[in-house]
Write a structure and sequence with these properties.
CATH class of the largest domain: Mainly Alpha
Number of strands: 16
Strand content: 5-15%
Helix content: 40-55%
Number of domains: 5
CATH architecture of the largest domain: Orthogonal Bundle
Length: about 600
């Protein structure tokens, strides 16, 4: 787990305007920056980035968060990847709980990563420049119906013939980084002695593969004539893991939001051709089966995923593997479908023969995951025979066990039960499904915590707006929180302690990031603060002091009532009364002193 102190320090060092500005065109507007929201379609800007709060907020769709949150939502990164990305941009090294690597060695690893990234970037520029001078490659791309504009969008290139063309790019052609990046190959003899080094990619159209930040991390090279392999991909490297990357995702992110769904294909050319023909929301797996990591990345981008596979046997096998990768992530608010083209077509050939409208119709008629799963379970089994029905249940069992309990799983269970002449309860009992949906009782509704009001709201607002003010709240203030009741007190103490742990440099952005585990408890207030003009910290400090002082007075008055109503002796009541009044006098003098100093 990454320490909260590191997160706070990181958010203090990065500038959210720079981070968001990489992806959104921002213009200065008063104290803030404005632009078109990247999370929903709009024609006039309602998206605001505050350099003082280090926070973004959309008045249209209510999206908001810190620099870390923006990278997660916009790029589809996980939390750790987003933190590492930001840390790298400001020269910080992310500590990890089980990290036993010395700082010097970690810095060396980071320097190696930067060297590999630089090598990939220089190579991509070289291949792109070579394409302009390669009439055969240009002719091939034009023959596939691609324009120069689409080639530029995907930064397509060309690796010319010859064994060591990259020597012109890298004077130190024998540098280890070139092998580690997968750009060159070292040939060795049977005894492991080095014989020669040569370029991995030769006479191929080059498809750069970019990560979520737009950095080139690998290549796919396609041969133009006959030969094998038709596609040659970069090997696994410290930068590139084909089981977790998707070709075209960087280019397609905004189009996916605009279309409301992502189209997953099998090849580079499918992605580029579909973008050319009006489907820029397409991505592709990289010469490997769809993995659960791929599915997670896709579902971070959109709630609607459509897999498009070739109609041949290989396409059907790929679809089955994608189905299995999706099952652990199936949810009632997600829609996953499968598009199967005729056996002789892939997306590229189909759209060229039947046009955009024909392919759009195929997308519209894609098969829902539930239907595909039941079809796979049925297979070619004879459902008129007990043995065939039993075999269908046998084949369905691991797929249903991979799914979390949900309404959709219940619907599939019911479909399987109908298909195999069983009941949903029998299927769930037979499959030992965790928390069977059909048999489970409805859980009692959770009691929603009341929104803070009055003095409680003033304290919460002051602490969230300026977390450093929490350091002014001593133990007596925390004790006074009991006035609000047990649940409110617990939440308020947690908020104050979270803010205090961030120290004197605590910021609104750092605290909001630290409150992520509180779910929606503070969302409304955070949105309100994000929308409001920047509040002067001295004014907020005065409000907080006055509010806590009033809370303490209320507590003392309540204690006074308890004293008079108690069974204490007259002398004990007098002692407690004098103590109480002394505390009240001290609070009054404190208030008068502050008023005099204003």
């Amino acid at each position: 787990m990454i320490p909260q102190s590191f997160i706070s320090d990181l958010l203090n060092r990065v500038d959210i305007v720079d981070v968001v500005g990489r992806y959104v065109q921002l213009k200065k507007g008063g104290a803030n920056f404005q632009g078109l929201c990247p999370f929903h379609n709009e024609k006039s800007p309602s998206f605001t980035v505050s350099p003082t709060k280090q926070f973004y907020h959309c008045f249209g769709c209510q999206a908001h968060g810190t620099a870390i949150g923006f990278l997660i939502e916009y790029s589809g990164m996980g939390f750790v990847d987003a933190v590492k990305d930001l840390a790298q941009s400001v020269g910080m090294i992310v500590p990890e709980a089980d990290d036993k690597i010395p700082p010097a060695q970690r810095a060396q690893i980071q320097a190696q990563s930067l060297a590999l990234s630089e090598a990939m970037s220089l190579s991509a520029d070289f291949y792109k420049a070579q394409l302009r001078k390669a009439p055969n490659a240009i002719g091939y791309l034009k023959g596939r119906g691609l324009t120069g504009e689409i080639a530029a969008r995907f930064a397509l290139g060309y690796a010319p013939e010859g064994w060591d063309n990259l020597r012109a790019v890298f004077p130190q052609y024998d540098a280890p980084a070139l092998v580690e990046a997968g750009l060159v190959i070292d040939k060795v003899d049977e005894e492991g002695r080095h014989i020669k080094r040569y370029d991995r990619f030769r006479e191929r159209v080059m498809f750069p593969i970019r990560n979520a930040k737009g950095q080139v991390i690998a290549f796919g090279g396609r041969i133009m004539d006959q030969g094998e392999p038709k596609y040659l991909n970069s090997p696994e490297t410290p930068l590139f893991s084909k089981g977790s990357e998707l070709y075209g995702l960087f280019e397609a992110r905004q189009a996916i939001r605009d279309a409301g769904y992502v189209l997953v294909t099998e090849g580079y050319m499918d992605v580029v051709a579909l973008a050319q023909m009006g489907f820029p929301q397409a991505v592709a797996t990289l010469g490997t089966a769809c993995t659960t990591v791929h599915v997670q990345k896709l579902l971070r981008q959109t709630d609607n995923v459509i897999f498009s596979f070739d109609g041949d046997k290989a396409g059907r096998r790929a679809a089955r593997r994608a189905l299995e990768a999706c099952l652990p992530h199936v949810a009632d608010d997600k829609t996953i479908k499968f598009l199967f083209l005729p056996a002789e077509h892939d997306p590229d050939s189909y759209i060229r023969e039947f046009g955009t409208e024909g392919f759009e119709q195929q997308v519209h008629e894609a098969m829902p995951l539930s239907q595909f799963l039941l079809r796979e379970a049925a297979g070619e089994h004879d459902l008129d025979e007990p043995e065939g029905r039993a075999r269908a249940q046998f084949d369905a069992k691991p797929m249903l066990q991979a799914m979390a309990p949900s309404a959709l799983r219940l619907q599939i269970v019911r479909g399987l039960a109908s298909m195999t002449q069983s009941t949903p309860g029998e299927i769930e009992a037979l499959f030992e499904l965790s928390k069977p949906v059909a048999a489970s009782r409805k859980a009692p509704p959770r009691s929603k915590r009341q929104e803070p009001v009055g003095l409680e709201r003033k304290i919460v607002r002051a602490v969230v707006t300026h977390p450093a003010l929490a350091l002014q709240l001593d133990e007596s203030a925390l004790q006074a929180f009991h006035q609000f009741g047990p649940e409110q007190c617990e939440h308020l103490v947690h908020l104050v302690q979270t803010a205090q742990a961030l120290g004197e440099g605590a910021t609104f952005a750092a605290l909001v990031q630290g409150l992520k585990d509180q779910g929606a408890d503070y969302d409304a207030l955070i949105s309100e603060i994000a929308e409001a003009p920047e509040q002067d910290i001295d004014a907020e400090a005065a409000v907080l002091k006055a509010t806590v002082r009033q809370l303490k007075k209320d507590a003392l008055n309540a204690e006074l009532n308890e004293i008079f109503a108690s069974a204490l002796s007259t002398e004990e009541k007098a002692i407690r009364y004098r103590e109480n009044m002394a505390k009240q006098d001290m609070l009054s003098r404190e208030e008068q002193s502050e008023l005099a100093n204003r």
